[in-house]
Structure formats: structure tokens, C-alpha cells
């Protein structure tokens, strides 16, 4: 046991009379980071980057006895801030008694895109399904979870429930969560998401008609319970949800335990069904015969990096083999369709109707907003294009004097606020470099897919997710994220994963799609690792410049 030290933690509590300072005296083991003690004392809600110092949300200020700054802290703070005692709790290891003020950045508020454009297929209504029968579609994202109660027959959205993914307290990215699961937090990670699903179903049950009688405040009648639930998530999210080991996803050769369609049940107790829906997650139906069951399926994935959320989007867009309109109508003309879904990873899929090839490019923080980030990806692309046009940066991404050292502050268009509530954004040379590296990887990935398909003529580009929904296509072309020839055929499709979760769930549970047919579709998809492609490095370097091409 190492000798302990005493730390005085200063926080501020909001009261009716304003903010009031509170001092908490804690014992700390100098071997550990300050984050460890803050978590133990429940003075911080989570470790959002897995002790890597990259999210910069755990800001603290040592008023005395500040430890020497680490490398990540030298990147996070200016020299003046370091001299004033600013550190990151996940990095700092105080050695002596000290006083620390918490200056934690608030968790970002994020608009969760649930718009599914015109992707829901209601052209073949099943007259045997009543208007009351519904299913729940779920987009299980790394950052957010979106649930929609939808009418099976018409595709109409009855209700929506959106929350931040509670697993973020173990890290903002999948690698942090894989490491947390391997360190013993797997059950907590799993149940955190199942609890969100329970809360969503309870919310739907309380808001609408249940068992044919009207609850207080009910809006409209739905069936006693959802007909089924379909969940679309990336490969890591689905592994954690189903209690599968994610260890193979965090290291080469990146081997998943399961990529196929997965099924389980949500159990509704008969007693609770008349007032609220109480749900437990079971991999098999209960043997005692009590309680109503909601069948649940998780959309199949393609690889460790291209998961069920992309599969769902492909299904909604009718891009999967054997259901593709491209294959039936235009394969002989060598035309192709491209899907791009940008976030922490940039997943891409291209098909000419005969073949489909998918890949993923590591985008890092460039397309994600929130504390510690310059801006959400769509804003970052637009602002970078503006800086390029105004000559503040050149085609190589280099900032002109004096911006190279000082950075530049820019107001958001139309007085908008970013994900942190700010009306302006401060960009540095590092922010521009991060965007360049991300866009070069994505653009190189698109180029490689195009070459491997024999360079067909791309007639349609779908931009999926929140990034694509708000992306300025002209700005994306101006900085070279998208080729010039794709400017007029690029379309934002909203939350394609959510739309695909509904469509696949509906088709599976109504018999329009069989598990065998779905498995056959998945077998026709080729997945490539960009790092193993001979042309990737040269293309990556080529597309680092910020210019239309």
C-alpha cells in the first residue's frame, strides 16, 4: 500500500440563490490518477475517453501542488493554462496534499437525427395486419440510442424516444468500451443499454392505449405490446448488448464472435402489461409460460468495422444484393450507387447491382462534435471551406499568420448554436489537420471501392446519419471530401439505420424476408481493409490537400 495524500475538491452547486462553493476532503492514493478518486466519490459522471486524455472533458485546476503536465495535457492546454494549474483528471497523478477545483466540461447536448426521409417502403401493405399492430425500431449508436414505435401496416411513426448511450461513461469510442468490458464491466455495459430499451418501452406504454383501455394522458390506441423489435447497431454495440466477448474486435486480426442475424426476447409480465411494460432481456423464451414476449432481432453485420447499422441502411436503400433496383434495371450499363455514413468511423458501401464492396476508414475526432472537439463534422467542413475561400488557410491546410499560432474564431451561420451551445467556433491548426486526415482517408476509401468495382459510373450517393443530414455538399466538394462529379447526385437520407431496422424487422416478422434469404444476401458482400490495400497510402497522401477534384 502506498502512502495516501489528502485532496480538497472544490465544486459549485446551483441553488436558488445562485452557485455556491462546496469543499470536499478526500483521501487519494498517489499511484492512481485523480479520475479514480473522482469516480469513487461520484464527483464525475464518467471517464469518457478511457484515460487517454483526448476528450478533454475532465478539466480540473490545481490551486496548489499541481503535478507536472503529461503529453496529452500539453496538447489540451495553452502554456499559460498549464502554469495556472489546469490539468486533466484522467492524466494527473497528484503526489502531495493539494487543492483542486473541478471545471468539468458539461456533456454535449446533441440533436439525434431520426428523420428517415422517404426510405420507409409502404408500397406493399399487408391487409391482414391491423392498424394497431406496431413494432419498435432501434438505432443503437455508440453515442446515441434512438427508438421509434411504428405502425407496421403503414410505416407511420407513432412515437419516438431518444437518449444518449449510457455506455459513454466508460468511454466515448468503441475501443474504450471494449477495454472496459475486458476489465470486468461487460455486465454493466450490457444492462445499461437494456435498461434504456426498458425505459423506452415503458414510455411508449404509458403514453398510448394499452390492453384496449385508455390510460391517463394516452394519445391513441396501439396493441397490448409491440409485435417485435429490430435493433441496428455497429458490431461492437451488438456484441456488448448480447453479452458476446468483444476482445477480438479491439486488436488485429479484428475477429467478431458473431456477424449473423441474432435473436432474443423481451419479456412482458402480464400483471404489468395493463399499466406499464416491464421488460427483461432473455436469450430464450421463459419456460414457465408466463408473460408476453416481444421477439427481438439484431441486424446482421458485415465485418468488425462495418456492422448491422450499415446493413440496415443498405436494406432500407435497396442496395443489398438480390433486392437491388440497380441490379435488376441497370447492371448492364455499369452504373453504381454509393452509401457513406460518417462518424468516428467512415463506413462506405458501393454496389453496381452485381457486386457490393464495403470498407471503413478511421476518421477520429474530425466528424464528431462536443467538448474537446472543434465542431460537429458538418460545421467543420463548412467552416474549413469558408477559410479556404477567404485565404485564411491554403490548399495544404496551412493557416496564415497570425492564425497559425492564435487560431481563428468564426460565427456559425444564422446565429446557430453548436452541440455545446456556442454561437461561434474556435478553430486551430490542429483542428484543420484532423479534418484533412479524416477526409483523406474517406476520399481514398471511396476511390478504392470505385476502382475495385471496375470504375462504374456513380449515379447516386447517399449520405446517412446526422453528419450527412446537415452536410453542405458544395463545401464537401470544395475541400475534396467528395469528387466534383458527385456534386449533383448526392442526397442526404437521414437515419438510414433506423429506417432499415423498421423495414428489416417488418419483413422478417411478416414473412416477406426469410432468415435464409437474408443470410444469402450477406454472403454476397465483400469487405476490404483499407490498410491492406496497396494504393491506399498514395491516395491518402494525394487527397490530403484541401481542393476540389
Describe the structure.
With 549 residues, this protein is of the alpha/beta class. Helix content is 30%, strand content 23%. It has 16 helices and 20 strands. Helix 7 crosses helix 14 (496-510). The termini are far apart.
Protein topology:
Layout: E1 5-15, E2 18-28, H1 34-40, E3 59-64, H2 71-76, H3 79-83, E4 86-88, E5 98-102, E6 134-140, E7 144-151, E8 157-164, H4 174-207, E9 229-233, H5 235-241, E10 262-268, H6 270-273, E11 279-282, E12 292-298, H7 308-316, H8 325-330, E13 335-342, E14 345-351, E15 356-362, H9 377-390, H10 403-406, E16 408-411, E17 424-427, H11 429-452, E18 457-464, H12 465-470, H13 473-478, E19 490-494, H14 496-510, H15 515-523, E20 525-527, H16 536-542
Parallel strand pairs: 1-5, 6-9, 9-12, 13-18, 15-20, 18-19
Antiparallel strand pairs: 1-2, 3-4, 3-5, 6-7, 7-8, 10-11, 10-12, 13-14, 14-15, 16-17
Summarize, please.
With 549 residues, the protein is α/β, with parallel strands linked by helices. It has 16 helices and 20 strands.
Which key terms come to mind for this protein?
single chain, 549 residues, alpha/beta, 7-stranded mixed sheet, 16 helices, 30% helix
- Radius of gyration (CA) equals 25 Å
The main pleated sheet reads as: 7 strands, mixed
- Poorly predicted runs: 210-216, 269-280, 283-290, 324-332, 369-374
> How would you state the average pLDDT, rounded?
82
Strand content: 15-25%
**What strand line-up does the widest sheet have?**
8-7-6-9-12-10-11
Structural class: alpha/beta
Q: What proportion of the residues is helical, as a percent range?
A: 25-40%
The count of helical stretches stands at: 16
Number of strands: 20
Give the end-to-end Cα distance, rounded to a whole number of Å. 61 Å
Question: Which of globular, elongated, flat, extended, rod-shaped describes the shape?
Answer: globular
